[in-house]
Design brief:
By secondary structure, the protein is mostly helical. It has a domain at 44-61 and 84-113. 65% of the residues lie in helices and 0% in strands. The chain contains 5 helices and no strands. The longest helix is centred in the C-terminal third of the chain and has 27 residues, at 86-112.
């Protein structure tokens, strides 16, 4: 008990360090968003358009409920490579829009950070 009182008294009388001036460590943060607001607007617009397009494309596509038999045996039309049907074209377009969405998300992060 006496030792803890002695430690508390020692800590109470210990000098506190003087605070450092905060102006020394403040640097102006200039990011690309402040320097180029038109670039941010273009990236935001393309990002929103790609998000809406991705939602629309994913809602239009049909699901493939072939189950295990379709994955093992394959489909009858997978034996030849003709022109892509509407489902395959939509799948390709969806993947392109999804890649663009991810790319725009990364660009938006880098521009506004």
């Amino acid at each position: 008990m006496l030792a803890s009182l002695a430690v508390a008294a020692l800590l109470a009388t210990a000098p506190t360090p003087a605070p450092l001036p905060s102006a020394v460590f403040q640097f102006p943060q200039q990011n690309a968003a402040a320097a180029h607001p038109a670039l941010v607007w273009v990236v935001q617009t393309l990002f929103i358009v790609s998000a809406v397009g991705l939602i629309a494309l994913m809602s239009v596509q049909t699901t493939k409920n072939e189950g295990l038999s379709g994955s093992i045996g394959g489909r009858a039309e997978s034996g030849y490579r003709g022109r892509l049907g509407l489902d395959q074209q939509l799948a390709k377009l969806t993947s392109v829009v999804a890649i663009g969405f991810i790319f725009l998300a990364i660009i938006y992060f880098l521009v506004t950070r």
